[in-house]
Amino acid sequence: MMSKVLILPGDGIGPEIVAEAVRVLDAVNQKLDLGIETEQGLVGGIAIDAEGSPLPESTMEKARRADAILLGAVGGPKWESLPMVQRPEKGLLGLRSQLELFSNLRPAILYPQLADASSLKPEIVAGLDLMIIRELTGGIYFGQPRGVRQLEDGQRQGYNTYVYSESEIERIARSAFDTAMRRDKRLCSVDKANVLEVTELWREVVERVSADYPEVELSHMYVDNAAMQLVRNPRQFDVMVTGNMFGDILSDCAAMLTGSIGMLPSASLNAKGQGMYEPIHGSAPDIAGKGIANPLATILSVSMMLRYSLNQPEAAQLIDQAVGRVLDQGLRTADIMSEGAQQVSTQQMGDAVLQAL
Amino acid sequence: MMSKVLILPGDGIGPEIVAEAVRVLDAVNQKLDLGIETEQGLVGGIAIDAEGSPLPESTMEKARRADAILLGAVGGPKWESLPMVQRPEKGLLGLRSQLELFSNLRPAILYPQLADASSLKPEIVAGLDLMIIRELTGGIYFGQPRGVRQLEDGQRQGYNTYVYSESEIERIARSAFDTAMRRDKRLCSVDKANVLEVTELWREVVERVSADYPEVELSHMYVDNAAMQLVRNPRQFDVMVTGNMFGDILSDCAAMLTGSIGMLPSASLNAKGQGMYEPIHGSAPDIAGKGIANPLATILSVSMMLRYSLNQPEAAQLIDQAVGRVLDQGLRTADIMSEGAQQVSTQQMGDAVLQAL
Ligand SMILES: CC(C)[C@H](C(=O)O)[C@@H](O)C(=O)O
Ligand SMILES: CC(C)[C@H](C(=O)O)[C@@H](O)C(=O)O
């Protein structure tokens, strides 16, 4: 069975880290004869420079016929003064919404080899393995009406709309319950149902869907309390589900609990199992081109891709094990460097993973 | 000069902790002859039970003529199934909006005596002293339109509106710059200007106001990154300013970095200097009536009140010092208890502060 993967290196450190991840993908593809074909495309700032749009139609066409997309990162100071609709981020948001990648899986996992990197005490975060499911194609990110208008008194007013329909809530809830069923069967839904009507509806629908998942223990938490609880005792959670905006904030907070965001992949899936895979860290323009960025989050994104979109769990496991092995060997890029370890470049880290495969 | 303070004990542990704080207020009032008069009022669940509304008009009248309000906490399971407009939280939100208490000061301070309580490593949080300024009467909390509507296809859709006008942004920005001027002169404004138009306007206005405060070093940060940075290295911040919703989340996250939210007060001020003061923790119904709640956050709220609304900085300092002394003595309520310390009840903690005054 052939499958097609679209590679979108993007901006900043994107090309460097994606190059290593593609080498790893090629290696497992050959080794296990997976029949994966890759092609490349432009998105973000580099697409603005080359084609005048952060998401050229040529890229969208390739994206539509791909089974999965591997994305590096988008954005950088060069494009920050552009009006919002022309910015690199719009490339990312456009892919999410046009492919209807509504279910964003953001694992926050603490690798035992990197336990020291966390700013939290070891007894609080050791063994952390949390999955945040973030709704990715709705909520205030895409809600209409939006913009800036002139009020009668002459001043301007900015406005955005936080909106969810029952069907949007239901499909992300199912995605979260399904994920919980494959894990420890505990799901915490995060909202602000004591203040926002849209999240009152959210809570009601999640509650209704839970009837179909009697084995999953469902709880609800206000978003402010969830932010507190992540800091206080993150291991109380198994799976969390929330809307686009709260998910943006909480998943980054959760990721940082591990202290090594250079290690964390993510998946964005649609109803057909098509998915976009990317590291959770950004384009890091300050270190771009220096060959020091950590490629492991992107390499682990390839592993998620093999698992969730390409149905190749053994290949995914090979990669996960290889990454574990290079960490055991004490190899570290600058961002996760610690005393006694051996600092390596982006490419050396890629080499080491290939070796370990 | 006479001043009037309205006492609103509220629900759960509210009455217990407020009782201790009022004893402390009375003591400094007598000692320094401050001419403070207090009266009591009902808000929250207790007001629903007694008068059928979380914010009776009698309470609003008292609130309008008060120079400052001391609030315990509102809410509890008893009232959670009520429709949103009748819930205890509406009492709190009504006070904020009717008195136009737009500027919410949320300090996150780590008391050296309680450094162990934090879930973060001591080298990350030692000496933490951060002030978050949260806009409190606008944004998505109060934006119109809001509600739940029926779509044409029969399903329901929930919606809220995130909205800020230039004048709303300007006044909270000035409040934040003024605060920064009294501190380390560094202000970080938090938004999501890469996605939300309302926060693009926010950034523009904050930038404009900064021209009047050339001594303050202004930076901007996206809210997801701010959540990360609070966990990674909270001491990089001096003052942060943000909207109502982001402020709700980030201030609770920041508070929890200290590990002792039972210690943290807050102030909500309007343009006339009138203010409402309350602990940041909630009504904690699970421990209500047991006499074990920590009254220190409420006592420190009295100190903030003396400083910000009643113009009595020496009295405020007396209270701060007294609280420092009881911590030095090793007295701890259950929530901040640690090995080798002496556990005391709510009232014993109040006694100790009075003694130390
Ligand atoms: C770049 C930005 C638009 C994006 C988001 O807010 O969704 C990023 O923060 C993320 O979380 O993937
Ligand atoms: C009780 C609730 C409405 C309130 C808020 O969200 O503002 C609380 O969380 C707070 O931060 O004071």
Note the topology:
The structure is a homodimer of 357-residue chains.
Chain A: E1 3-10, H1 14-32, E2 36-40, H2 45-51, H3 57-65, E3 68-73, H4 88-98, E4 103-109, H5 122-125, E5 129-135, E6 147-150, E7 156-165, H6 166-181, E8 186-191, H7 197-209, E9 217-222, H8 223-232, E10 239-242, H9 244-257, E11 265-269, E12 275-279, H10 296-308, H11 313-328, E13 331-332, E14 342-343, H12 346-356
Helix pairs in contact in A: 1-10, 1-12, 6-7, 8-9, 10-11, 11-12
The structure holds 3-isopropylmalic acid (2 copies).
One 3-isopropylmalic acid sits between chains B (89, 92-93, 248) and A (194-195, 224).
Based on the model shown, name its key terms:
homodimer; 357 residues; alpha/beta; Isopropylmalate Dehydrogenase; 2 domains; 10-stranded mixed β-sheet; two-stranded antiparallel ribbon; 12 helices; binds 3-isopropylmalic acid; cytoplasm (chains A, B)
Describe the structure.
- The structure is a homodimer of 357-residue chains.
- By secondary structure, chain A is an alpha/beta fold.
- The first copy, chain A, folds into two domains: 1-107 and 261-357, Isopropylmalate Dehydrogenase, CATH 3.40.718.10; 129-257, Isopropylmalate Dehydrogenase, CATH 3.40.718.
- In chain A, 40% of the residues lie in helices and 22% in strands.
- Chain A contains twelve helices and 14 strands.
- The two termini of chain A are 23 Å apart.
- Chains A and B meet through strand 7, helix 7, helix 8 and helix 9 of A and strand 7, helix 7, helix 8 and helix 9 of B.
- Strand 7 (156-165) of chain A pairs antiparallel with strand 7 (156-165) of chain B.
- One 3-isopropylmalic acid sits between chains A (89, 92-93, 248) and B (194-195, 224).
